[in-house]
Amino acid sequence: MLKKFSSHLFLVFSLLLIINHTFAKDSHTYGPKEFTEKNKWTAIVAAYAPEIKAIDQAFSELPEAQINQTLTIRGVKYQLGTYKSEPVVIFTTGVSVPNAAMTMQMALDYFPIDRVVMMGIAGAVNPDFRPGDISVPERWYFHDESVYVNPDPKKAGSFVLPDYYESAQKSYQERRKQDPHSPAYENFGYIHPEEMAVIKQGWDQPKQMPYFSATTQLVELAKKAVKSVSPIKMPSGNPIKIKVGGNGVTGSVFLDNAEYRNWLQRVYNAEVTEMESAAVGQVCFINNVDWVIIRSISDLAGAQHGKNVENVFDGIASGTGTKLMIGLLDQIVALE
What is the mean pLDDT of the segment spanning 307-330? Predict the structure, then answer.
C-alpha cells in the first residue's frame, strides 16, 4: 500500500514539474523576442521594386558590401549581410501604410535591428523640387487621417461636425501655440483632418501624435553625408538638389491632384508626399528604434498635364536616393 501511495505521489510531483516548466516557458516566450547581440543591425528598407533594385545594384557593385543569406518569412524576402563589416538586413515593406507598418514590425520582431534607414521615391509637394532631387525630412505626418462630413444645410460653406471633432479642433489650436511644427489644420472641402491616438510602453493611455520625428543623430549624419558624397547628378549631367530637414506627409493615397498638394503645403508645410514613411516612423517610435528616411523626387504631385508619368523617373530617382543612402551608411559605420 505504501509503495502504491509513493508511486502516486511521484506521479503527481512529476506532473507539477511539467506544468511549472510549461508555464515558465510560456511566460518567457510570450511577447517580443529580446535580442542579446551587442552589435545590432541596420535595416535598409525600401517600399517596392524600383527602389530595392537600385539598392541591390549598389550592393552588388561595392566590394565592402556582401549579402550572405536570404530568408523568406511570411512571404517577405530578407537579405542578410554586411556593409563594411557592419551587419545589415535589406527588405521591402510593400506599398502603402498597412504594408509598411506590418512589415516593419515583423522585421523588428525577427531581427536585432538597432536603426532603420529607408530609401524611396516621393512626389514633391514643394514646387522647388525637380525629379531626382532628394528630401530627408525631420518629421513625418499622416495626412489622410480624417473625418468626412456632410455640409450644413443651414449655413452655406459650413459642415456638420461631430462633437468630439469640435473638441479636438480646439486642442489642436491650443497645441499649435506651443509647437510650431503642429499642422495648421483646415478642411479640404468635406474632408477634415484629425490625428490618430498612439500608445507606447510606459504610457497609461494613448496620446494623439501630430507627427513622428526622425532620430536627430541620423538626420545630422545625413547632413554630413551630403557634404561627403561625390556630387550626385542626373543621367543628363545636371546636379541634383538635396534638402535635409522639413516635413514629409504619408497617406494611403497616390496623390495626383494639384489642389490637394497645395493644401498639404499650407497645412503641413510639407516637402514631399508618399505612402509609407510615417508608418515606419510610428513603428520605430513605439519600439525605440532609431530611424531616418531618404526620399528622392519622381514628380511634382498632380502638376502634369494629362497622365502622371512618375514611372519615367522612378528608377532614376531611386538611383540618386541610393547614392545618398550609401553615403549615410558610411557615416553610420564611421560612428560605430
Answer: 83
DSSP 157: T
Which one-letter DSSP state was computed for residue 214? P
Phi-psi region of 15 (alpha: psi -120 to 50; beta: other; left: phi over 0): alpha
Q: CA–CA separation, 17 vs 1, rounded Å?
A: 25
pLDDT tens-digit readout, 143-161: 999 999 999 999 998 999 9
Query: Under 8 Å CB-to-CB from 208, ≥6 apart: which residues?
Result: 168, 171, 195, 196, 197, 198
C-alpha cell at 34: 529580446
Q: Where in 183-225 does DSSP place strands (E)?
A: 191-193, 197-198, 207-208, 212-213
CA atoms of 224 and 221, how far apart (whole Å): 5
Decide: 239 and 232 in contact? Cβ < 8 Å: yes
**pLDDT confidence bin for 22, thresholds 50/70/90:** very low
Q: State the Cα torsion 114-119-124-130 to the nearest 10°.
A: 130
N-terminal to C-terminal alpha carbon distance within the chain: 70
The reported pTM is: 0.89
86 in helix, strand or coil?
A: strand
33/46 Cα distance (integer angstroms): 24
Amino acid 220 reads: E
**DSSP three-state, residue 276:** coil
Q: 197: closest CA among 142, 269, 273? A: 142
Strand partners, 151: 159
| Chain centroid to CA 36 | 25
CA–CA separation, 277 vs 265, rounded Å? 17
